Amino acid sequence: MPQPTLYERLGSQEGLAALIDKYLEILLSNPAYEELRRQYVNGMAHYRARMLEYLTGWFGGPVLYAQKHGLPKLRENHQRLQITARLRDLWFGCMQQALAESVGDASLRKELEAAFWQMADGLRNA
Ligand code: HEM
User: Fold this and answer.
1) pTM, full prediction
2) 7-122: what fold?
3) Exposure of 53 by Cβ count < 10 A (0-12 exposed, 13-18 middle, 19+ buried)?
């Protein structure tokens, strides 16, 4: 039997959508994230759809983002943002809280945190 992917362990589209919705709920309701929130110039519906497509493929599910928009170029797509250590920490803090509130399995949560941290730190550009 092949090992289940992170995507499957998270609960496929439904589990992933719940994580992203939780991230957005925290982002929009906690004043601590105001500086991060201001960066979302294309709106939350656009972000939610893109994140769902991207994370599905990144975690080992169907490569929806690439099928619809071409290969994801995350560094390029974040280039217009000034991602300082502070902004990275805000993003990661918000995602960490969303993981804590939507992923019950502690070892899965740790793996996801590590993957998100590595990617977030790699996107730092200022
Ligand atoms: C390092 C901290 C990060 C910050 C401050 C940040 C910020 C943002 C913002 C503000 C947008 C929306 C831009 C708009 O409205 O057009 C965005 C889009 C996006 N972000 Fe991030 N992000 C970060 C890390 C990440 C990570 C770690 C991932 C993936 C694991 C990610 C994946 C995406 C994707 C897929 C989009 C949709 C746009 C696209 O097609 O590339 N981001 N990000």
Assistant:
1) 0.97
2) Globin-like (1.10.490)
3) buried
Task: State mean pLDDT over 115-122.
Answer: 98
Domain ranges of the chain: 7-122
Helix, strand, coil in percent for the chain, rounding step 5? 70, 0, 30
* Cα 119–Cα 122–Cα 12 angle in degrees, nearest 5: 10
Question: Ligand 1 centroid vs 76 CA: distance in angstroms?
Answer: 10
- Check pLDDT > 80 for residue 38: yes
**C-alpha distances in angstroms, 38 versus 5, 67, 92?**
34, 29, 16
Measured by CA distance, the residue closest to atom 21 of ligand 1 is 78
78 lines ligand 1 (CB under 6 A): yes
